[in-house]
Design a protein that fits this description.
Layout (H helix, E strand, L loop, with lengths): L28 H18 L1 H15 L6 H14 L3 H14 L3 H33 L4
Helix pairs in contact: 1-2, 1-4, 3-4, 3-5, 4-5
């Protein structure tokens, strides 16, 4: 598997210690998600204190409350698009679908992110749409 891309979040290639540096048009967002899962697992083993704290924060933040789980994932996705974080896009497209968000809800959230993030968010909004297509192809 070759994953190469430019990202504003720290990203590493398939060999864990290989930096990523180039944009790949044929990238697989589900593969990126899977790859990040492995890296985050390793980070959790090597830095258990901060990562266990982050895990509790994440679990609590996306748990249903006044807002539903899918709505919270849509917010996280929109922030990821506006912040131009490719890893966030991969995670939150995946997690929004898992939480039950629909394609229409996800594309609405991408639209709000584009409005908030301007031109750079348009590029990452397009990337998020590509990720959505790869995780859940349009009917």
């Amino acid at each position: 598997m070759t994953l190469t891309r430019e990202t504003t979040c720290e990203g590493w290639g398939p060999e864990v210690n290989e930096p990523r540096d180039a944009v790949s048009v044929t990238e697989s967002w589900p593969e990126l998600h899977e790859h990040l899962q492995k890296l985050i697992g390793r980070l959790g083993r090597e830095a258990p204190g901060p990562m266990s704290g982050f895990a509790v924060l994440h679990k609590t933040a996306v748990a249903p409350g006044a807002l539903t789980g899918p709505v919270k994932e849509l917010i996280a996705l929109a922030i990821g698009v506006a912040m131009r974080c490719d890893g966030c896009i991969a995670y939150h497209i995946h997690d929004a679908l898992e939480a039950g968000a629909t394609r229409a809800e996800i594309t609405d959230a991408i639209g709000v992110a584009v409005m908030m993030g301007g031109g750079p968010a348009v590029i990452h909004g397009a990337k998020a749409l590509e990720a959505l297509d790869q995780f859940a192809p349009a009917a």
